[in-house]
Design goal:
This protein is an alpha/beta fold. Helices cover 38% and strands 18% of the residues. It has twelve helices and twelve strands. The protein has helices at residues 10-20, 37-47, 61-64, 98-106, 141-160, 184-198, 214-223, 254-267, 275-289, 309-318, 333-349, 361-365, and strands at residues 2-7, 26-31, 56-59, 67-70, 80-83, 113-117, 122-129, 132-135, 172-176, 206-211, 228-234, 241-246. Strands 1-12-11-2-10-9-3 form a seven-stranded mixed beta sheet, with helices on both faces. Strands 4, 5, 6, 7 and 8 form a five-stranded antiparallel beta sheet that branches. The longest helix is centred in the middle third of the chain and has 20 residues, at 141-160. The chain is globular. The two termini are 41 Å apart. The relative contact order is 0.14. Residues 323-327 and 361-367 have low confidence and may be disordered.
């Protein structure tokens, strides 16, 4: 069962979320890319900002921008991550021994180490290889993102501690898409870890989490069973936004949302190897729904391949890779071609709402 509410703009929607949090401890939001999730998080933050006072600790694309990489192009030796020391996000960094708070969180996901220099406001990274410590290494973009995320989690833990005066201003947490390009295993690990942190009985913080990652969203739904769950979409007529609440016992629109995500990735030519895992899951669930034992029944038969053997084998092979959280791999061009054909044939075979899968303008205008 679902209920819909319409809002003229993001500030009005943000005000509604704050009203819901008067009664609930957590809100989970799902929205497609481009809906305005990041702008919603800023609108929510702005409501609680008055002069120097504020009430929301947030994680979004703006948080990540507080960290800036310096490759030391002149010396090529002192590579470091610089911090925007003027931000309130880093309040108390020197006094609170943040290294020791971040390190046990980071060790869940990474094999590199770091040290924070609070005089220069920089972070330097190292890695131990064959017993030897290599300093001032350049970490990958994915590793940098996971470090920033663990930094944020360490700040959240401080905000949850009522005795820490430096973060006593925090009343709300707003977390928007903490990590992009997660494979399925790491999406589960990060979501589960975050949920356990938010369920701490001693915390009085209210939380909003928004994401476009279907698996991440569903794990959070299962972990935070008492949270309010919503789907956000833009109004197709007249502008504004629709907030749809789901009151069922299971996470909603998972497979439709996953299909929309795969379709958009295919349209924008940003297909990664782990997308084959998502496609296989959708095919398996569809086959099971229709009473079949194998997902191959959902693959279109070709004249020269009546049993869909080729595409079935491709999905079997390409959906079983050990894909990395840190370095998501683009598909080979040939595999992209097969992926698009399997996906588009599937969408043409089953009657999904075509509004969720808009054709590009040149395709729509073609005779």
């Amino acid at each position: 069962m679902t209920t819909d509410q319409a809002f003229a703009d993001l500030p009005a929607l943000s005000a509604q979320l704050r009203q819901v949090l008067e009664e609930k401890k957590a809100i989970l939001l799902y929205a497609y890319n481009g809906t305005g999730k990041t702008r919603l998080s800023m609108a929510f933050k702005d409501i609680g900002k008055e002069g120097d006072a504020r009430d929301t600790l947030y994680f979004n694309a703006f948080t990540e921008d507080l960290f800036h990489w310096d490759n030391d192009l002149d010396g090529d030796s002192d590579r470091r991550l610089t911090l925007n020391g003027t931000s309130r996000f880093f309040a108390g960094l020197a006094e609170l021994e943040m290294d020791n708070r971040i390190r046990p969180l980071l060790q869940r996901y990474a094999d590199f180490d770091f040290r924070i220099d609070t005089q220069e406001w920089v972070v330097r990274f190292s890695r131990t290889v064959d017993g030897q410590v290599i300093d001032n290494i350049k970490v990958s973009r994915g590793e940098e993102n996971i470090f920033v995320w663990c930094f944020f989690l360490a700040v959240v833990e401080l905000a949850m501690d009522s005795e820490m005066e430096v973060y006593q201003w925090v009343k709300y947490l707003y977390i928007d898409d903490p990590i992009s390009s997660l494979d399925e295993h790491n999406a589960i690990a990060v979501a589960s870890h975050l949920a356990q942190l938010l369920k701490r009985p001693d915390s009085k913080l209210k939380t909003v989490l928004s994401t476009h990652h279907t698996l991440f969203f569903n794990v959070l739904c299962n972990e935070l069973k008492n949270a309010k769950r919503y789907f956000i979409n833009k109004c197709s007529i007249g502008g504004g936004y629709v907030l749809r609440e789901e009151k069922g016992d299971t996470p909603f629109f998972h497979h439709v949302a996953a299909l929309a995500e795969l379709y958009q990735a295919a349209q924008e030519d940003r297909l990664f190897t782990h997308h084959f895992n998502m496609l296989r899951t959708i095919l398996e669930k569809t086959a099971s729904f229709h009473g079949h034992k194998n997902f191959s029944v959902c693959i279109k038969r070709e004249d020269d391949d009546p049993d869909g053997i080729l595409h079935t084998r491709l999905i079997n092979i390409l959906s079983h890779g050990n894909y990395s959280l840190y370095e998501p791999q683009q598909m080979l061009d040939e595999n992209k071609m097969y992926f698009r054909k399997i996906l588009h044939d599937f969408l043409n075979r089953y009657p999904f709402n075509p509004e969720l899968f808009p054709q590009p303008a040149e395709a729509a205008d073609a005779p």
